[in-house]
Amino acid sequence: MNHAQQGPAARQAAMAEQVLADGSATAADLAERFGVSLMTIHRDLDELERQGIVRKFRGGVTAQPSGVFESNVQYRLKTMRAEKAALADRALRLVEPGMAIMLDDSTTTLEIARGLRLGEITPLTVVTNFLEAINLLADQRGIRLMALGGDYDPLHSSFLGVSCVEAIEQLRVDVCFTSTSAVRGGYAYHQEQHIVSVKRAMLGAAARNVLLIDHTKLARAALHRVVPLSRFDLLLVDDGASPEALRDLDEHKVRYEVCTSPATRGGDDRAGAT
Fold first, then answer.
1. Which DSSP category does 65 fall into?
2. Nearest-angstrom CA–CA distance, 114 and 53
3. CB neighbours (10 Å) of residue 97?
4. How far is CA 258 from CA 56, 228, 238, 239, 263, in A?
5. What are the pLDDT digits (tens) for 95-136?
6. How many angstroms separate the Cα of 223 from the Cα of each of 62, 67, 167, 226?
7. Which residues are within 8 A (CB) of 170 and not within 5 positions of it... i.e. 6 or more apart?
8. Cα angle vertex 139, ends 138, 140, to 5°?
9. Which three-class secondary structure state does DSSP give residue 122?
10. How would you classify the pairing of strands 234-238 and 256-259?
């Protein structure tokens, strides 16, 4: 297809798909690929940035997260899949028939929903604001699905806002499984304040809280503090975590387990300080 003959909306959609697939791109490469001028490319990238799909940097654009930018859900769905699966495999061992559990709108906890589709843990009540998880579990026998409503946010594929927080506050679940964008210095962080308020409400609605973090998040920063790590009964991290990162968790007396991904499975999970 001749991209130069596309309208701006179709070209921008194709450009977003390309950047989400590759992670980042330079403006010059995109101009050559789509057969338009650099000025046109920068206008397109300004629009994609305004929509929150990508962020611009000098000479290019990226879909990767920063301290103030949470990646689009379509990008996050593609990243760290093996690590997220290892974390979910361990998390599922904490779920028992008859429980009510809550899943946040992270692609990490989405792997728990994928595991629940096997139908081996029923009956079960699952509460979530994540449309991806709702779609996965909507037709699952033995699972009572409670969808949290609110303002739909297409960049996160989830329901957020005051009405979502108020719905959560009316509930009490056995376990809440959540993830955040960054963990550092004894706190969990996230880039976006409206996500923080929903996560805090979820943590307040559970008898037990479990944080699932792939190792890349131990080296990141994000703008807003969510909660101290002491709010979690258990932190699960994959075995890509560095010794320095694990020492930081030990120093803050965080109870954690290191989960082996399929590529390295064979040894025992290591348990951290309680």
1. -
2. 25
3. 10
4. 35, 19, 5, 6, 14
5. 999 999 999 999 999 999 999 999 999 999 999 999 999 999
6. 18, 6, 26, 10
7. none
8. 100
9. coil
10. parallel
Residue with tokens 């699960």: 236
DSSP 24: E
Pick from 128, 122, 163, 157: nearest CA to 140 = 122
Amino acid at site 25? A
**Separation between Cα atoms, residue 147 and residue 105, nearest integer Å:** 12
217's tokens = 């998040």
Residue written as token pair 């977003």: 16
Rounded-to-integer distance, Cα 125 and Cα 251, Å? 36
CA distance 238 to 230: 19
| Residue that has been written with the tokens 């990508």 in this structure | 54
Structure confidence by residue, pLDDT tens digits, 46-102: 888 887 778 788 888 887 666 655 666 666 777 788 999 999 999 999 999 999 999
Q: How far apart are CA 189 and CA 223, in angstroms?
A: 7
Structure token digits, residue 137:
């579990």
Residue position matching structure tokens 């002491």: 230
Confidence class for position 264, pLDDT limits 50, 70, 90: low
The answer on pLDDT for 262 being more than 80 is: no
